[in-house]
């Protein structure tokens, strides 16, 4: 975090603000899930779009700092990371809500739990393998940022094309 201008004191502040953002997000999502204009699919698409946008902005910010285009201002990465935390927390609970519509009633409990458990396992593997992915040299600068950016954009496109089918 120090390379984007966040000191250790601000990292602790970021953890506390991040916890508040997650809690607030659960309340907002819980109260707005059954509203007419904010159904499950609309919220999923909106959250993925905003999360993709915020991660892209963070990647652009890191690239701009490393190339010397801008100077680090601590409030910019703190704001972006809080936004990623706020919208990322809802990405974790949305599979439970969406999968309840996909599976038939008899298999809903086991199938939804297995799918969400596999999702959590993949998130864990992705988090633990980030250092190895970051060390792969594909011949472009900031390989992991581009790799994860393309991954999120692909997921965003797949969600938009699956909507309503």
TrEMBL record:
One of its GO terms (molecular function) is transmembrane transporter activity. It is found in: Membrane. Keywords: Membrane, Transmembrane, Transmembrane helix. InterPro entries: MFS_sugar_transport-like, MFS_trans_sf. The chain crosses the membrane at residues 12-29, 41-63, 75-98, 110-131, 143-161. GO terms for cellular component: membrane. The keyword Membrane applies. This is Major facilitator superfamily (MFS) profile domain-containing protein. It comes from Macrosiphum euphorbiae.
């Amino acid at each position: 975090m120090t390379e984007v201008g966040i000191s250790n004191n601000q990292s602790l502040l970021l953890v506390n603000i991040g916890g508040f953002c997650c809690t607030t997000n659960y309340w907002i999502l819980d109260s707005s899930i059954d509203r007419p204009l904010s159904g499950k699919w609309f919220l999923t698409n909106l959250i993925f779009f905003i999360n993709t946008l915020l991660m892209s902005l963070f990647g652009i910010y890191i690239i701009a700092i490393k190339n010397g285009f801008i100077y680090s201002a601590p409030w910019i990465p703190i704001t972006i990371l809080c936004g990623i935390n706020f919208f990322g927390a809802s990405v974790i609970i949305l599979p439970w809500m969406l999968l309840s519509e996909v599976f038939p009633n008899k298999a809903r409990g086991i199938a939804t739990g297995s799918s969400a458990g596999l999702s959590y396992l993949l998130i864990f593997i992705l988090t633990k393998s980030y250092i190895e992915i970051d060390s792969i040299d594909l011949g472009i600068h900031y390989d992991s940022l581009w790799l994860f950016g393309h991954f999120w954009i692909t997921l965003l496109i797949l969600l938009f094309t699956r909507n309503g089918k």
